[in-house]
Structure prediction request, 136 residues.
Amino acid sequence: MKYLLDTNIVSEPLRPQPNSEVIRRLREHEGEITIPSPVWHELRFGCLRLAPSRRREAIERYIEDVVLTTFPVLDYDWKAADWHAQERARLSRAGKTPPFVDGQIAAIAHTVGLILVTSNTADFQTFYGLTIESWM
Prediction:
């Protein structure tokens, strides 16, 4: 694996007009891509909070038939939790408080040595030693 995807990249194909560069890169790097368990949570939570509808059914099919079968899911383990705690403490002392889930995602990318792919690079720039890419 080479890339860890943020939720906004994984969900891009569901947009009415998906970014063609993201779609191209997803195809180009098939087999090199994984997602962190917090992204799996965000995808499922976002879907499950929708009222029953065709849209919800389409999202459920995408999550189960594409995401789960294409992208291995990496756990937020003790190494990631430890790195995350250190970074939260460092950033808190500096007066910065990134969202907890962003810290979890960053921690998994960092401890496994993967490039984090996101369309919100600014959300992750304060984390130490994290390699970030935007495919937008």
About this structure: The domain at 3-133 is CATH 3.40.50.1010 (Rossmann fold). The CA atoms of residues 10 and 67 lie 8 Å apart. The first helix runs from residue 7 to 10. The beta strands are 3-5, 33-36, 73-74, 115-117, 132-133.
